Amino acid sequence: MVAAGQGPLVYVMGPSGAGKDSVLNRARALLAADTPVVFAHRYITRPAEAGGENHVALSPAEFALRRAHGLFAFHWQAHGNEYGIGREIHAWRKVGLTVVVSGSREHFQKVNGGDDETHPVLITAPAGTLAERLAGRGREDSAAAEARLGRSEAYEVNDLRLVTIVNDGTLDQAAGAFVSLLATLRRSPDVRRRA
After folding, report:
1. Phi, then psi, of 84 in degrees rounded to 5
2. Which of 49, 75, 88, 188 is most buried (most C-beta within 10 Å)?
3. pTM over 0.70
4. What is the per-residue pLDDT across 59-72, written as a single tens digit (0 to 9) for each?
5. Any idea of the CA torsion for 46, 49, 50, 51, to the nearest 10 degrees?
């Protein structure tokens, strides 16, 4: 159960190559500066220079220390890395902000959909598009890219609140759909969007 007046948590997930980072970055740029929405960064045991999202790079030992001291609201493993979302999101929600996190489909299932004010969003794309994008970004070798593609089909999110954004058009179309969802949540925190 969520505390009265607490801001919504928008839990974004989707397969590798769906363009989640691109959609979220573009959505941030489209939002007015005074919009009460904050985007949580992720702590990852991946070097900052590896490319992709702007994240806080931690060594495995640093990550383990933070996890042991309860500094993560969420944490999970995927693709040979540890991922975490800091506990600071609880403070942000307590003051009424909408908090956007980039999470994991597997982890979302493990936390049983979060609380009453969690709004799951799946950003996805057709399989061929996922493969092209993974090949184009050059962050993984072909074996790692294949493993990511295999994982993309392994997790299905069954939640009546789920909103799906198919990112196979322009980036502005997908980001605009996400911004529209955020605006709906700000107008009516109790709204439940169904895919």
Report:
1. -145, 150
2. 75
3. yes
4. 999 999 999 999 99
5. 120
